[in-house]
Amino acid sequence: MGNLGYYIREGFSGLRRGGSGSAGAVLTVVLSILVLGVVLLVVRNLQLLVEEARAEVEVEAYVAGDPAPTELSYIETTITGLPGALAVRYVSKAEALEELRVMLGDDSYLLSEIEENPLPASFRLTMAPEYRTDERLAQTAEQLELVPGVTRVSYGREWVESLSEIVRIAGLGGLVIGGVLALASVLVVGNAVALSVYMRREEITILKVVGATHGFIRRPFVVEGFLVGILGGTIGVVLVYVLYATVGKLVGAETFLPWEWWLGLVGLGALVGVIGSFFAAAGHVHRAK
């Protein structure tokens, strides 16, 4: 316990003595966590957007002409029996035209030029949440196309798949950017710790003379790197929240990161600091004379 207190005191002392080197290391970690946090914030809100879009998706099966009641009953019974079907609603040709009239608003007068209703009747199918994935929606569409009397099936496939692809690309891009910045942070923290070792080379030499192990000498520098990472990670997360509270809400961001995510970002900063300081201290303490 006494050694732990010594390591912590020396870690804080090294952080203060590091001056511009320590400040630069903290700033690099801040930048890394800030960029990664913003990417995660974008991905998180895109995920929510995709989930909301899927929740509103209806699979629409169009039927040709004016089917007889018996044919409509057969189609509705068949569709209702599909896996994942929550509700089925029939939309007649007249109802489809009225919906279009409402959608056009002030331009609805254009429909008065139409002599015959060109819109088909359809069945709108609401799926259970677990059946709203891209794969299962596609499977449902294929099953509906096989139902006698159904001429075409639509569920906004391109739109849902495009949103999902954007989320996937944003996530991968965030991982690449985060990895590059994390590596840069490791190197900068390592340089800051190496400078700290150099500044304390005489003290390290004395510790070696009196029998201190390399591990004992190295640990305060690892604590210093840990402090750099924690400080940089915390500031980075705070800045991400500031951006969310000021700019994010203006562009439609609905939610901040879950607390597990921002704790993970702070932890990532600490890990970057520990890794950078460990390897820098291990090499430079060994060579210090």
UniProtKB/TrEMBL annotation:
The keyword RNA-binding does not apply. It is a multi-pass membrane protein. InterPro entries: ABC3_permease_C (IPR003838), FtsX (IPR004513), FtsX_ECD (IPR040690). Residues 176-281 form the ABC3 transporter permease C-terminal domain. It is found in: Cell membrane. GO terms for biological process: cell division. Keywords: Cell cycle, Cell division, Cell membrane, Membrane, Transmembrane, Transmembrane helix. Gene3D superfamilies: 3.30.70.3040. GO terms for cellular component: cell division site; plasma membrane. Residues 57-153 form the FtsX extracellular domain. The chain crosses the membrane at residues 21-43, 169-198, 226-247, 259-282. Belongs to the ABC-4 integral membrane protein family. FtsX subfamily. This is Cell division protein FtsX. It comes from Candidatus Coatesbacteria bacterium RBG_13_66_14.
